[in-house]
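Quick one, T. Sequence first:
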Amino acid sequence: MNARNERPGTASGGATYRSAAYTSLLPWQVRERRFAPTGLRRRGLNPDDVYAFLDRVAVDMAAVYAALAESRRENARIKGALRRHQTDQARACNERDDNQ
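Structure tokens:
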């Protein structure tokens, strides 16, 4: 395995849980990832390496989608608060104009 594609403190394996030392994959790591050949006179890549990597990519993608969903919820909350504030300000301005 290419040391350049490994993060410090992470062990190769199929575990998909995140430890405190876990850091997300970066795009260049996915693009430059290489797998060892299977050996034993078989063609192709070592399936365990490929599946472990795919599991890690899937975990990172799930985290990205969860963060995106949270960001969208927060954006909607802020937009709603801004609309309510603008409505309240417009009403207050109209009431001041009506009372003069």
